[in-house]
Amino acid sequence: MIWGIRVNDQNAALIRTFYDAFGRRDADAMERCYHPDATFGDPVFQELEGRDRVMGMWRMLLGRNHDIAVAVRDVSARDHDGEAHWTARYTFGRTGREVVNEIDALFRFEGGLIIRHHDEFDFKHWSKMALGRPVGLFFGWTPMFRATIRGRAMRSLEEFMNVG
């Protein structure tokens, strides 16, 4: 117990296991960390429901980003929730530009598994790295641009899942 907060080492280990598997590109091991009713959200894939859709997104991203490198730090967890900070380094396929994305992750746990995973990152900063100037710099903050990126991402996920 730290400052009256109950630390849960098993949940912290689960977070580390997830990112270790991600770094090894082991989608099956990542999937074992998620509850069947898991949900995921981030600035691009706003809300994905169910382990199949969540893992479809991760499998698609791993399949399209062959050079992805993942580093996690600041992992902490309690009985029902936890957080971590992670860095993703990869080449954005559409532009060939290098992206170094700093991400804050929040987790909820149920039955020893991740039931809710939410990633937060600076969308404008990401768009400048991924898309370059002038597109990312001038349009990365606009709601219309974000909707376009989200729509493309969701169409890609639907296509990926329908093929697989």
TrEMBL record:
Instruction: State the organism named in the record.
Output: Streptosporangium roseum (strain ATCC 12428 / DSM 43021 / JCM 3005 / KCTC 9067 / NCIMB 10171 / NRRL 2505 / NI 9100)
Q: Give a single Pfam family match.
A: SnoaL_2
Question: Residue limits of the SnoaL-like domain?
Answer: 15-117
Q: What is this protein called?
A: SnoaL-like domain-containing protein
- Per the record, the domain of life is Bacteria
